[in-house]
Fold this sequence. Notes:
The protein is of the alpha/beta class and 390 residues long. It folds into 2 domains: 2-173 and 368-383, 3-Layer(aba) Sandwich (Rossmann fold), CATH 3.40.50; 184-363, Glycogen Phosphorylase B (Rossmann fold). Helices cover 43% and strands 16% of the residues. It has helices at residues 2-14, 62-76, 87-101, 113-117, 129-141, 150-160, 184-190, 211-224, 247-258, 276-282, 297-304, 317-320, 335-347, 349-363, 368-383, and strands spanning 19-24, 33-37, 40-45, 83-86, 105-108, 144-147, 167-169, 197-202, 232-237, 265-268, 283-288, 309-312, 327-330. The strands form 3 sheets. A 6-stranded parallel beta sheet has the order 10-9-8-11-12-13, sandwiched between helices. Strands 4-5-6-7 form a 4-stranded parallel beta sheet, with helices on both faces. The longest helix has 16 residues, at 368-383. The protein starts with a helix and ends in a 7-residue tail after the last helix. The model is unreliable at 386-390 (pLDDT under 50).
Amino acid sequence: MNVYIRTVAERLAAQGVEVDVFTRCRGLDLPEVVDVTPGTRVVQVKAGPCMPVPKAELPRFLPEFLGGVLSRERLEGRGYDLVHSHYWLSGWVGRSAKEIWGVPLVASFHTLGKVKNYALARGESPEPPVRLAGEERVIAEADRILAPTPVEASQLVGLYRADPDLIRIVPPGVDHRLFFPRDRQEAKARLHLAGVRLVLFVGRLQAHKGPDIAVRAVAEAMARDPEGMQDVWLAIVGGPSGSGHGVEVARIMDLASALGVSERVILFPAQPQTRLPDFYAASEVVLVPSRSESFGLVALEAQACGTPVVAAAVGGLRYVVADGVTGYLVEGHDPADHGERLLSLLRDPLMARRMGERGAAQAMRFSWDETAAQVLSVYRELVDGRVAIG
Length: 390
């Protein structure tokens, strides 16, 4: 979501649209207003302590956050033509700003609580009722709702009773200046991982993203073909998410140890966008075993780098990965099934290379410039007055 917001904001500004991104203060050492690019600002709002807080505590800071947004607008007298909220928490603020300023509201969610609750991992806590109710209210009051794929558009209508006439499908993009095919051996050398074959998982270390499935899939493949897998390592790139902090990290390593593959699993912290392409390019296969996925940006970035993907056949991943063409879609979350597809790619480098080439070609259909252009088109529908504000 952070990549989406910043990238689209910068490209909108390049087209002459001034964008202010309001975010909760997370550090006293940061200025209140940061000019990111000409026309793009990030405004920190004091709402609760200026530090990260558990996600469950964020709703109680929303009134203070709204007050800070309104105060900043009054102080500068900038005036806004439109509000675009991302996620249900900012949607609460967006609904109030819409009413107070008399401007239209565009809503994006990036993940939906009800969808996540239908695909919980064993022992994973469901999304709370306050989130589900908050999503419903934002959906009911938004003038336009952006969905990344037709799959999420259907979920918005079927699960939340969204008006289909208000939904616009705007897929995210990929930065082709960063994500493109490059020499695998050179990428591995830059990561100091020469001499091994890498299988890669990228994502937040939370049960919903399926890092446990990635570990089990690699363990399954090693059990089936120990000789053929003797030079294969699993790289996990990502940081812990939410209030669990390092709990998921410990759980992953405990699982790897129990399966006898801990010496083949390497954990890397979350990486900046400029570093990720080397990880994708250095890998033979990227695993995306999410239990649900709104879009699947990791799969798209991997394909843009020419690396085939083995992904769960859920949500937006069905839209991003062409089964049998740019990688494989696996029904369900049985690690044996994911391991089988992984083995087939590792055993057939020629097929894997062809899938990678097709993936890179398919990824060219997605660009952040096109995403920003489609977002701007939605804004113009509302701001130009062609559609009445609800």
